[in-house]
Amino acid sequence: MITIAINAQLHTLDDPMSLLDLLQKELRIQSLEHLAVAHNGEVVRREAYEGITVQDGDFLDLVEPVGGG
User: Fold this and answer.
1) What is the mean pLDDT of residues 26-51?
2) HEC string of the chain?
3) 41, exposed or middle or buried, with CB in 10 Å at 0-12, 13-18, 19+?
4) Which of 3, 5, 15, 54 lies in disulfide reach of 59, CB 3.0 to 4.6 Å?
């Protein structure tokens, strides 16, 4: 089991996994088009999601723009 922080909230996963799998399978985020992700303080390009493995102690910041006026 590993523990990661997503937007400062702790989450437990069975095993390390790719950032893409985490977003789509664990967090069930349907559209990644307008999602900004920082992994351990570094902004990640969408094309790199599959190549990054989320491991114990990692922290992620997820941001989606909200429209309004």
Assistant:
1) 94
2) CEEEEECCEEEEECCCEEHHHHHHHHCCCCCCCCCEEEECCEEECHHHHHHCEECCCCEEEEECCCCCC
3) exposed
4) 5
- All structural domains of the chain, each given as residue ranges with its CATH number in brackets, are 2-63 (3.10.20.30)
Instruction: For residue 62, report the phi and psi dihedrals to the nearest 5 degrees.
Output: -115, 130
pLDDT at 38 over 70: yes
In single-letter form, the type of residue at position 66 comes to V
Q: Which amino acid is at 67?
A: G
